[in-house]
Design a protein that fits this description.
Two copies of one chain form a homodimer. With about 400 residues, chain A is α/β, with parallel strands linked by helices. Helices cover about 30% and strands about 20% of the residues of chain A. Chain A contains 14 helices and 13 strands. Chain A has helices at about 25, 30-40, 55-65, 70, 75-80, 120-125, 185-205, 210-215, 240, 255-260, 280-295, 305-310, 315-335, 395-405, and strands at about 1-10, 40-45, 90-100, 105-110, 140-145, 150-155, 225-230, 245-250, 265, 300-305, 340-345, 360-365, 390. In chain A, the strands form two sheets. In chain A, strands 9-8-10-1-11-12-2-13 form an eight-stranded mixed β-sheet, sandwiched between helices. In chain A, strands 3, 4, 5, 6 and 7 form a five-stranded antiparallel β-sheet that branches. In chain A, helix 10 (about 255-260) links the parallel strand 8 (about 245-250) and strand 9. In chain A, about 55% of the residues are buried. The interface of A and B includes residues 228 and 352 of A.
């Protein structure tokens, strides 16, 4: 039996006044999700723990059966893996912005005018960087989308116990990085990073791409500002742990990075935007093709759009996107055979909060063998009455593996 | 958004035959609590864990987000803090009784005739005590209500690994205190305590107050018997931990002691008795004044009476007290704005048990943003069907902080 965890990012919500005090999911017309709920087992889930407000990253780490309090050392490692940098245990990883500084090294644009140019030529020059006294440290950059990039430091005696360089506002220079503890390794890494930032300016300020941007009155991408430092953690291989062959279908680098850490294969979704305008027809075709035509037996799927509407506080858009995925995605998912499907969210992104909240998310499991309860609709309110009651994200993999008949008896 | 945890001490119960096999809360007429339940989210809570019979102290420690298995070293430290002794981490603290012993040092009354005299003149003399060989240990007493007092030992090389002095019955001398392990510190502390008990008799037996009690045929308060030893634990400041400004409104020293440990401000309730005859009008006025006219944003409130009726096995009295707090307290609480209110209990005190039990307690959360479920009554039976399902006391602070929009995202 195959299995799928389909995460509708940020799906959970609170009652919204303009929707008649219903949640977007409750108000949405979702005949396919409801049909699955009616023929499945339902409940609510705390992806990390009750009252703990999850990031998308920590929630997915928990849902895959890892302890986020151990594995999640910072966002850097997962972003770096997400863009395809082959990070290794012990590396120090950062997410970075290409930013703009003036001649006095004052940040004038944190995102270099949300640069849309291909930054790979900038990265190519940055990757030639060596810092005097730190010749033993490998310094690796890689571009991500827009103004985003990642940085990985590889070497002995490095530490992630250092402060952030991001000044968060314009009008100030990049922050000097300091060690958080008084270890020599932290001191060394902080000093190195300060020099990397300065050196990036030297390398980038006269780069042809930037000279051309200046000519076009666009802010040059003339400095790298790292943040979200993390020590690359050791992560047990998901396939070995559960005896499976798993793949991830997701739109955002962060989720893909987590899947890479877990040792999952990555299946691209062509032309996905990570937003409500993503091409859901391509998305569902990608899923169906993966389920039917590959030898993977476990899939982690993440659809991002609803989370974005939550962050924007746009109830109507969130509701419509839910209806759209019901129509395009779940009309097909509900017809799959020989697969146990979990539909849930990583966290709530309530319209009223415009950010993640700790409200539990609805969860349903649909497929052969599940104990069908009498819940008829999939949403934050009805799902509470289902047969799963209230579960934790960290239990999900085991529950699913058991329904896939893929667990070993503990004891005799 | 402000928040309040309103604990109705010992509220939970089991079906009572004389109430038609309903619980006192179920049988009681509680229109205001029910209105809050109908417009709130409901569930049941294990304040510590399923099947663990909580004390009021350990339950409150858990509800405030601390691990009682770490923080609760004994009752002494919390009693001592409750009466206002400025205990410090590492102190050894006891609760004590003023008792009566005869000339042969045999206890004839464990509570010195439930002495109602002001015992501060006795304490004053006791605080002059020094024990030969232990001049480096500070010996501090403080009076509490009636026959109760506390004792704190402050010094190096002390231990709480010692036995109790309380013989529990009359007709025997105070028990000799022994070390539980074979550390020198435990041996030293046991020896010191035995000498403190003997010395208390020397100091108290001819005290004018006791001579006058003997003349009046009242048992003299002529010895101190310590019990409930505990090492004063290190407790993280609640305000720093959650970024709040918290206050406690409670009737009993034990709860106030826990709140002091947590760094909460204490708001007195004038003329409260900790019993079913407490002045609830003053109580609700105190709450309303604190919510409306102070800059505190989190309140822990404990109303004690129902627990006492439970201990007494008085179903009718428990039910009537619940009706009284519904009418006087919750008629006003239900009208508060801009606050998320949790109503729950620390534990059940069933009529049939006459002591605490591990039966989970009902819990409801009322205020802006909660996912309203279809529970219409607040009690042990109906609340089970609510949207919170079954939660733990240790999760409560996080859940409340999230609804107050006062949590930080874990991850991104």
């Amino acid at each position: 039996m195959k299995g799928m965890i389909l995460v509708i990012d940020g799906l959970g919500d609170r009652p919204v006044e303009e929707l008649g005090n219903k949640t977007p999911l409750q108000k949405a017309n979702t005949p396919n999700l409801d049909k699955m709920a009616e023929n499945g087992i339902n409940g609510i889930m705390d992806s990390i723990a009750p009252g703990v407000r999850p990031g998308s990253d920590t929630a997915h780490i928990a849902i895959l059966g890892y302890d986020p309090y151990v594995v999640y050392t910072g966002r850097g490692p997962f972003e770096a893996a997400g863009v395809g940098l082959d990070v290794k245990v012990g590396d120090i990883a950062f997410r970075c912005n290409f930013s703009t500084v003036d001649d006095d090294f004052i940040v004038t644009d944190r995102r270099a005018g949300r640069i849309k140019d291909d930054t790979s030529s900038l990265i190519e020059e940055l990757n030639k960087m060596t810092i005097k006294g730190y010749e033993d440290v490998e310094i690796m950059f890689k571009e991500s989308t827009g103004h985003r990039a990642v940085l990985v430091l590889r070497g002995i005696n490095l530490s992630d116990q250092i402060t952030d360089a991001d000044p968060k506002i314009v009008g100030k220079p990049p922050k000097t990085v300091y060690p958080i503890n008084n270890s020599i390794n932290a001191e060394k890494t902080a000093d190195l990073l300060n020099k990397v930032i300065k050196e990036s300016y030297k390398i980038l300020k006269n780069h042809p791409l930037n000279l051309s941007r200046i000519k076009n009155n666009e802010p040059p991408a003339n400095v790298i500002i790292p943040r979200g430092v993390g020590l690359v953690p050791e992560v047990e291989d998901l396939n070995k742990k559960y005896g499976i062959n798993s793949a991830c279908i997701a739109e955002t680098g962060l989720i893909i990075g987590i899947a890479r850490f877990a040792g999952m294969d990555i299946i691209d979704v062509e032309g996905s935007t990570g937003s409500v305008d993503t091409n859901l027809d391509v998305f569902i075709d990608t899923i169906l093709n993966a389920v039917n035509n590959t030898d993977h037996d476990l899939f982690l799927v993440n659809i991002k759009g609803a989370d974005e509407s939550g962050h924007d506080g746009n109830a109507e858009e969130k509701m419509r996107f839910i209806e759209k995925i019901d129509e395009i995605v779940f009309s097909k998912i509900s017809q799959l055979q020989e697969i146990v499907t979990v539909v849930t969210a990583d966290h709530s992104t309530p319209i009223s909060v415009k950010d993640h909240s700790a409200d539990p998310v609805p969860i349903m499991i649909y497929g052969e063998g599940v104990r069908v309860d009498d819940v008829k609709r999939f949403n934050e309110i009805d799902s509470v009455k289902g047969g799963l009651l209230r579960v934790k994200g960290s239990d999900l993999m085991n529950i699913l593996m058991d329904l896939m008949d893929n667990t070993h008896k503990f004891g005799a």
